Amino acid sequence: MIAISVPACNRRAACSFYFLILVIFPEMTADAFIVSFFIYSVLGYFCEVAYCSIPQRRFVNRGFLYGPYLPIYGFGAAIVTVIISPLHAYPVLVFLLAFLLTSCLEYFSSWLLEALFSVKLWDYSKHRVNINGRVCLLNSTLFGIMGLVLEYAVDPPVMDLLSRIPSAVMHYLSVSIVALLSADTALSVMKMKAFRDGLRRIHEAAEDIDARVKALQGEGKAELAAELRARLTASAERYREDFRKKAGRILLANPTLTARSREIGEELDLLSEWVRERRALRARQRKELKELDDRHREAVRKVREDD
Question: Which residues pair with 135 in a beta bridge?
Fold first, then answer.
């Protein structure tokens, strides 16, 4: 057996976390809370994917993390089961509180992610009723309805299922979930940080090229300036091309991605346009291939009829 030494500060933090859960959920163990949190995160992911994929008629892999789960739905479910459950006998209040509290959660999540990575992963500015593009009336209403479904239809059977799982199995499940989400979150933060830094580097490279070329032109070295611009531009384009390939998944998962700074926003708009053009090109290619296959099948059918 391998012994793992855990720093005292981490042990205290873990103990505090488990104690907080026990205080907030007196009828639920910390392990059960973690497993239920994960279940609702997965269910939320599938709801989000369906909501975004059906209108676009293509699969949209939503989410900040790599795995098929959206923790914001896990937190939203926790809000409903903790704060709103005591109002079980009042469906209207359940709806209104779910509407309000989950909207606050979404607004805070949007603000936090933008503060960390300088981009908005979702932007509702085009919706008629919205607050700073972070929340909108349509989605908040849907969250209210989901709160009703959760409180009266989904949570009871989920809690019944969890009550049937042996405590030892529940503990191993919760530890595995915490390890999975921790690793995924760390990797996803690194991915988004690289995405933010890549956008900045592209913009800074363009400014650096202009500055160095202007300096040479000011010294009367026009030919050298043109040669330098060509060389540096080629290098910048190679980096941009490599960055596009790495950033494609983020842009596809967050089609309304926007940036608060003008510099990053300009590069983001160019990348988003590139993704849209590539998607349109692939759609045309698929259509042409289908038409070619149809013509081939028709030709084969005619030949057989003639025989």
Answer: 131
Bridge pairing between strands 135-136 and 258-259 = unpaired
Q: Record the tokens describing residue 82, joined without a space.
A: 């903790």
Which residue, 52, 46, 20, is CA-closest to 34?
Answer: 20
- Nearest CA to 71 out of 185, 172, 161 is that of 185
What is the distance between the alpha carbons of residues 174 and 171, in angstroms, rounded to a whole number?
Answer: 5
Q: pLDDT tens, 211-237?
A: 877 877 777 777 777 887 788 777 777
Residues 6+ apart with CB under 8 A from 92: none
Q: Quickly tell me which residue has 């900040």 as its tokens.
A: 64
**Contact indicator for 52, 75 with CB cutoff of 8 Å:** no
CB atoms within 10 A of CB 274: 16
Q: Check if the beta carbon of residue 76 is closer than 8 Å to that of residue 44.
A: yes
225 with 217: CB under 8 angstroms? yes
Return d(Cα 48, Cα 253) in angstroms, integer.
11
Query: Which residue would you say has higher pLDDT here, 21 or 275?
Result: 275
- At residue 28, the pLDDT reads 61
For 85-126, write each residue's pLDDT tens digit: 888 899 999 999 999 999 999 999 999 988 888 888 888 988
pLDDT per position as a tens digit, 136-155: 999 999 999 999 999 999 99
Task: Average the pLDDT over 154-159 and give the result.
Answer: 93
